[in-house]
Amino acid sequence: MKDREQDFVSRLVQIARLVTRMDDDQAALLEDQIRQEYGGDRPYVAATNLEAAAARNRDIVSLVRSGAITASEAARRFSVSRAHVYRLLSDFGQ
């Protein structure tokens, strides 16, 4: 069996815990439910809608640059990391 640390379901639950206030019991329940429904299968994971992601990124840059929100607030509002916000600001030039 592959190392569970690199398991897709474990990573998915880890991400869910980062963006929610999920406690250990809830995380275990989520992981168990996913494994019961999809264990052994190769579920389809759709790619991000690139147009929607580009629009979101433009919104993030616009809001942060205008001073309407901070990078931390943008990260929370748009469910991205602060590092992602700073990369966007750097990529879009300051």
From TrEMBL:
It comes from the Bacteria. This is Uncharacterized protein.
